[in-house]
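Reminder to self: tokens first, then the designed residues, so the page reads top to bottom the way the pipeline ran.
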């Protein structure tokens, strides 16, 4: 579970990038995080993961405050950033073993998971190549494989489907569903509104750092008295032309 309580964050020239943001990402649910460019999605995710400091408020992950107990909190989640261009000078297998070492995944179990994940994402033949030479989609797949390697209870995914081929996107969506169905937490941002509508149990929509809506699709339709698609409601809520 991820709990955000009265979160505020400002930057020079923007005193309220995030303004009094509160919501809960419950166990057993896939929560889609939506908003136009500059709405505050990535800033929120970076505060949840401890990359950015919080100006006001608190964020807890399965009861651990990200500010007060950062090590304990960070052991609980796997994070896919919006840009997969990391560890480029490592070979794919070196990166996965590095992640396995950090999270103390036993050798035999590690090899089983690496084999399974990389075959699912069709990068098993490229593990001895440098990540620098991977395509964008392959970099995304190796980062995702690393995130899932230690089987964290909480998945935090920032635009995880970007660059994935249709088969790999299907695999990831299926893994997300399985993970949530086991009582775990999946929180992901996406610009793909059809995907969010298809797989998410709950939707959180923000704009200008403020929460505009939080609930399931039935609540969305009831609150706005419409049977329109998520795309149409999203555009109306965010005043997109």
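Designed residues (241 positions):
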């Amino acid at each position: 579970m991820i709990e955000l309580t009265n979160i505020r964050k400002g930057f020079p020239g923007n005193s309220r990038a995030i303004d009094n943001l509160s919501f809960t990402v419950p166990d057993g649910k896939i929560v889609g995080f939506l908003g136009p460019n500059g709405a505050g999605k990535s800033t929120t995710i970076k505060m949840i993961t401890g990359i950015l400091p919080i100006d006001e408020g608190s964020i807890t992950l399965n009861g651990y405050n990200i500010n007060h107990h950062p090590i304990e909190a960070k052991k609980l989640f796997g994070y896919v950033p919006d840009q997969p261009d990391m560890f480029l000078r490592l070979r794919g297998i070196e990166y996965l073993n590095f992640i396995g070492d950090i999270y103390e995944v036993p050798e035999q179990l590690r090899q089983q998971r690496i084999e399974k994940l990389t075959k699912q994402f069709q990068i098993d033949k490229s593990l001895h190549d440098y990540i620098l030479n991977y395509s964008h989609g392959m970099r995304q797949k190796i980062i995702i494989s690393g995130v899932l390697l230690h089987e964290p209870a909480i998945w935090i995914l920032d635009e995880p489907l970007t660059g994935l081929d249709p088969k790999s996107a299907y695999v990831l969506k299926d893994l997300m569903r399985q993970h949530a169905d086991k009582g775990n937490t999946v929180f992901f941002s996406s610009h793909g509104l059809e995907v969010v509508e298809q797989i998410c149990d709950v939707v959180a929509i923000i704009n200008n750092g403020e929460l505009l809506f939080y609930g399931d699709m039935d609540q969305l339709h009831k609150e706005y008295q419409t049977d329109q698609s998520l795309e149409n409601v999203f555009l109306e809520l965010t005043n997109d032309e």
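Residues 84-152 form one domain.
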